[in-house]
Amino acid sequence: MLELPDGPLRYTATTGTYVIREEPEGDAYARASAYAEVFAVSYVAERGGIVHEATTPSATDSGTTNPGTTRRRSTEDDRPSRASAAPNPRPVVFAFNGGPGSSTVWLHLGLLGPRRVVSGDADCPAAPPYGMTDNLETLLIDADVVCIDAMTTGYSRPAPGAKPDRLHGFAADRDLLVAFIMQWLTRNDRWLSPKHLLGESYGTTRAAAIAAQLMDRHFVALNGLMLLSPVLDFATLDFTPGNDAPYIHFLPTYAAIAHAHGKHPGLSLEQVVDEAEAFAEEEYPALLARGLRLSEEERREAAERIGGLIGTDPTWVERCDLRPEHMAFLAELLREERRIVGRIDGRFSAPAGDGLAAQMETDPSIDLLAPAYTAAINHYLRVDLRFSSDVVYEAMTARVHPWSYKEFENRAVEVATDLSRTMRKIPALRVFVAHGYHDAATPFHASEHVLAHLGISREEYEERIRIAYYEAGHMMYCHEPSRLALSEHLREFVRAGA
């Protein structure tokens, strides 16, 4: 039970692994066999004032349950009676982070769940052993929430005898989570509830792909997509030879980060961003397109203009061929102070190990935030939710790599076409997009560009897509004012689509 200012919120927290099965391909019929065990934590607000309890899925769902773990077995008697089988009107939100290789601990304990981690912020990071507190702004107030860990993250693993490699890729990952969502809806009798997906970072790539697959393959129509720090077209942020798009789209973020570190005294963040976006959209593309046709004087003037916007020495910009790459920028911005700047959140900084390094050696925003989330999830699952496992909870892991994008051979990875097609197929589908100004992983201007070029009408773009901005980074909920604002925006969004 969560005590809120408006009264108690009673809910059931269900935690454990769900066995996902697949039917064999070919002419011969055979029973579906297990190929993956997906770990998830589900929060469902109780109807009728039932007292909160922590449970794990049944033995048929979760495989082995460790000693001391509370378990509720599913039986025929557990099925709702005809008198109590009315559809549950509460929305259901399926949430996941990205990476690839990231568990959903960040959304789970940073923003959505009834409990949240006390991680601190850029100017006052928390110190170990860290702590947790009630989340009085939890999305659970207005929607049931299912936090899902993708394959090899969290406690999700291949089924015994199955190989993980086949699940480490765009289409396999999409199809696995589609199977999980459909199983969850069936076993919880929630097919007639409003349905939403909420993804962060690569989780937004995943969300757009899942939404399309649910509709294209299974005719499952969603009510809403919530995309936090989105990446819908990798061409907008992959720094590859011959592709000038990332330099253009990252520049407004560079300017915002420079502002956070005092490089634009007397100007507001909005003024700095507006000026940088105007330059990025109007002058910068033409300058880059001219290449060696720029005169020495034009080149020097361009470097001075760019350096003034992003807070770096113009001579460094000129040496970069007017194209500062993001990891290089994060090492350069505070070089005179011998500090590096965060990629996930550019408001963070830390001492540089090598004052002459061409790129940042580590991300201070992750270094200062991840330990708090790691400690919190391991304590919360075992002590509060009574789920026990000797397997390591993988908050972030490189074990998913190499990640397969074979479906995009000879072209950039993108799901903008998936999102466009799904919006055309489902007229009721709405989209909420959240950007952090100081996010140097998925820059807001890149997302703005992709959204403005979706294959939908201008009227649909204006009426069905809501875009919000926050004075924080990739995980904008680490900034308390942004967390409060984002929580309210998400709750408003699901209420409007219920």
From TrEMBL:
Segments carrying the region annotation (Disordered) are 52-91
Instruction: Name the UniProt key words of this record, in alphabetical order.
Output: Carboxypeptidase, Hydrolase, Protease
Entry keyword Translocase: no
Q: What highest taxon heads this organism's lineage?
A: Bacteria
Q: Name one GO biological process term.
A: proteolysis
Any one Gene Ontology MF annotation carried by this entry is: serine-type carboxypeptidase activity
Compositional bias annotation for Polar residues: 55-69
The protein's organism comes out as Brachybacterium nesterenkovii
InterPro entries with a match to the protein in the record = AB_hydrolase_fold (IPR029058), Peptidase_S10 (IPR001563)
**Protease found in the keyword field:** yes
Q: What is this protein called?
A: Carboxypeptidase-related protein
